[in-house]
Amino acid sequence: MKRLVVIAIGVLIIGHVHRHAYQAAAQGKQAPTAGWTTLFDGKNLAAFNMIGDANWQLADGIVQANKGNGFLVTKGSYTDFELKAEFWVDDDANSGIFIRCENPQQITAMNAYEVNIFDKRPDPSYGTGAIVDVAKPLVALKAGGKWNTYEITARGSHMVVVLNGTKTVDVQHSGHSRGAVGLQYGAGTVNFRNVQIRQL
């Protein structure tokens, strides 16, 4: 009987060790690979300046806003890069990720590229997945009510946007060459997490 108890305990210990090893390996896969810089890891907003009056708040590894109007703007400026960001918005949200923002104090779709998050945009041709006034989405997708991932690549005049693994933009445009990254709050409920950038 004692021998069976010892064997059972041994099996439990081995299973516990293997489970933790698996969890550590899984976490390792989520960690940034070489060259990636974490802009937002859920703990603080040290990499950003707040512009406008949006009520950004940290909670449970995310940053959320549901009132006001404004941006979280990176303190750094970028030319060629890959950007990854996860976001959750409700159906009525108006948000976006602005890249190469030439004036980080006053961001518009005229002095930056606006990668849109706006399922109910009155003119749907530049809704979620588009770069406003530059490139309509190749595929019409909705983002409301779930976590999504944007992967944005800007290399010279070539820009590619991928939403949840589906390419929505592949365009050449030479309007803006360098600037900050801005996470927008315009309406509804908007959440961001796991924002990373890699300069090319």
Task: Characterise this structure.
The protein has 200 residues and is mainly beta. It has 1 helix and 13 strands; from the N terminus they run αβββββββββββββ. The strands form 2 sheets. Strands 1, 3, 4, 6, 9, 10, 11 and 13 form an 8-stranded antiparallel β-sheet that branches. A 5-stranded antiparallel β-sheet has the order 2-5-12-7-8, with no helix packed on it. Strand 3 and strand 4 form a beta hairpin. The relative contact order is 0.23. The N terminus is likely disordered.
Structural class: mainly beta
Silhouette = globular
Number of strands: 13
State the major sheet.
8 strands, antiparallel
Radius of gyration, in Å, reads 20 Å
Proportion of strand residues? 35-45%
Element string (H = helix, E = strand): HEEEEEEEEEEEEE
Low-confidence stretches: 2-31
Q: Tell me the number of helical segments per DSSP (H or I, 4 or more residues long).
A: 1
Termini, distance in Å? Answer: 63 Å
Mean pLDDT, to the nearest integer, reads: 88
The amount of helix comes to 10-25%
Fill in the keyword field for this structure:
five-stranded antiparallel sheet; single chain; mainly beta; 200 residues; 1 helix; eight-stranded antiparallel sheet; 14% helix
Give a summary of the structure in a few sentences.
The protein has 200 residues and is mainly beta. It has one helix at 2-30; strands at 36-40, 48-52, 57-59, 62-65, 70-74, 81-89, 94-101, 113-117, 147-155, 158-163, 166-172, 180-187, 190-199.
